[in-house]
Specification:
Largest sheet: 5 strands, parallel
Number of strands: 13
Number of domains: 2
Strand content: 15-25%
Bound molecules: calcium ion
Shape: globular
Helix content: 25-40%
Number of helices: 8
CATH architecture of the largest domain: 3-Layer(aba) Sandwich
CATH topology of the largest domain: Rossmann fold
Radius of gyration: 18 Å
Low-confidence stretches: none
Strand order of the largest sheet: 2-1-3-6-7
Order of helices and strands: EHEHEEEHEHEHEEEEHHHEE
């Protein structure tokens, strides 16, 4: 038995999605379903980070692999199982080159999907706890603590913080953050980095005398203890 997982299922066929949700929930997992790439991006921005993703390729607004490629390009290491109706060797190779951890051709048995999901989670990189002062980010459980108290972040906030944590002690520019965390090179004009920085400040630094998140005027942002 694997531990309870938070799973993002990106699948537009209701019959398959329902079947998988029922089966996975019976195993004790929590499943969020997205029927399009747009819904998946929304879930990644809003929800608590996912332990594993199951991604269909043929979606109404594009190929699920597009999202997988973008996530990998941004340094996201979430284990991903790709589903497809196409069982050609080329599709399998594309899937694995695109950054998927494994591939399952439709139709499949639920037991096989469950086994594959368990396998890619076990294979994923070992627990690593990154630390800055009294702030810790556990990259396996996706939990964040400050001074021993758990801080609840959305998936997008988590990705932003994990990126700052990987670069702790170094100034990162808005452009670098946009590229790594939002997988885009131009700000959609919403100051999204600054908006999310204010969310992180509220959750991480508010109420603490020792601030860890710093603005370096004209350069970008910095996560550092004892600044
Ligand atoms: Ca589909």
């Amino acid at each position: 038995m694997t531990d309870a997982l938070r799973i993002l299922l990106i699948e537009d066929e209701a019959r398959i999605a329902d079947l998988l949700v029922r089966g996975l929930e019976e195993e004790g997992h929590a499943v969020r379903v997205a029927g399009t790439l747009a819904q998946a991006r929304q879930a990644l921005a809003e929800a608590v980070p996912f332990h594993v993703m199951v991604v269909d390729r043929m979606l109404p607004d594009g190929d699920g692999l597009q999202l997988v490629r973008q996530l990998r390009a941004g340094g996201d290491a979430t284990p991903i199982l790709v589903l497809t109706a196409r069982d050609a060797v080329k599709d399998r190779v594309d899937g694995l080159h695109g950054g998927a951890d494994d591939y399952l051709a439709k139709p499949f048995d639920f037991s096989e999907l469950l086994a594959r999901v368990g396998a890619i989670c076990r294979r994923s990189r070992p627990a690593e706890v990154m630390q800055c002062g009294d702030l810790t980010v556990d990259t396996k459980s996706l939990r964040v603590h400050r001074d021993g108290s758990e801080i609840r972040l959305t998936a997008q906030e988590y990705r932003f913080l994990a990126y700052l944590m990987e670069n702790r002690g170094r100034v990162v520019s808005r452009a670098q953050i946009l590229e790594a965390v939002w997988e885009t090179t131009n700000d959609p004009g919403t100051n999204v980095v600054d908006v999310y920085m204010s969310y992180l400040r509220t959750k991480i630094d508010r109420g603490h005398e020792n601030k860890l998140l710093h603005t370096v005027r004209g350069l970008g942002y910095l996560l550092e203890d004892g600044h």
